[in-house]
Amino acid sequence: MNLDTIQKQVEQAVDEVCDAAHLHEGQLFVVGCSSSEVLGEMIGTHTNVDVAKVIYEGIVHVLEPRKIDLAVQCCEHLNRALVVNESVMKKYNLEQVNAIPQPNHAGGALGTVAYEEMKDAVVVEDIHAQADAGIDIGSTLIGMHIHPVVVPLRISFDTIGQARLTCARRRPKYVGGARAIYDQNLM
């Protein structure tokens, strides 16, 4: 598996989702990833930190210049807790938990890399469905972290490496029923 190709795929996916979701500075982007699935293996069976590193680099390469906040989901063994910067924890009034993600035990490769690479990384139990959009690489189930209503996004491709790619964004809830008129820019 070519790591440069994986990084370019991630950059393109994050870029397309940011554009399709009309994300702007200060919004929150969530990512879940199975490095095993990227390599064509069953989730949780072939954790690979090198793959996770290029995925993380691809994500931040797109989000940092846009000043979009990042939350990285850990694996199910940490109950899908998330790695965020301390500033994000404070901004969203999140509760820090005591866990250090590990690639082969609990946390997964991408959670571990994010914890090591983020400026002031902390682990939070939950982001209370406050993400505005995200990508799920390898069916890790990120929908619980996105504001209701979650809307699937189709981008120009549907895999990263061998992993299925699912993208999503939020939209405001419709209220008012048949008589209501909706802002097309929010749909």
Characterise this structure.
The chain is α+β, with helices and mostly antiparallel strands. It has one domain: Hypothetical protein TT1679 (Rossmann fold, 3-Layer(aba) Sandwich). It is built from 5 helices and 9 strands, in the order αβααββαβαβββββ. Strand 8 and strand 9 form a beta hairpin. The longest helix is centred in the N-terminal third of the chain and has 18 residues. The mean pLDDT is 95. It holds the Pfam family DUF436. This is UPF0340 protein EDX97_04435.
Question: Outline of this structure?
Answer:
The protein is of the alpha+beta class. The chain has one domain: Rossmann fold, CATH 3.40.50. It is 30% helix and 21% strand.
> Which CATH class applies here?
Alpha Beta
Tell me what portion of residues adopts beta-strand conformation: 15-25%
Count of DSSP helices? 5
Question: Any idea what the CATH superfamily is called?
Answer: Hypothetical protein TT1679
CATH topology: Rossmann fold
Q: How many separate domains?
A: 1
Largest sheet: 9 strands, mixed
Characteristics of this structure?
187 residues, alpha+beta, 9-stranded mixed sheet, 9 strands, 21% strand, UPF0340 protein EDX97_04435, DUF436, Antibiotic_NAT-like
Write the layout of secondary structure elements.
Layout: H1 3-20, E1 28-33, H2 35-38, H3 49-66, E2 69-73, E3 82-85, H4 86-91, E4 96-97, H5 108-117, E5 121-124, E6 133-137, E7 150-153, E8 159-160, E9 163-170
Parallel strand pairs: 1-2, 1-6
Antiparallel strand pairs: 2-3, 3-5, 4-5, 6-9, 7-9, 8-9
Helix pairs in contact: 1-3, 3-5
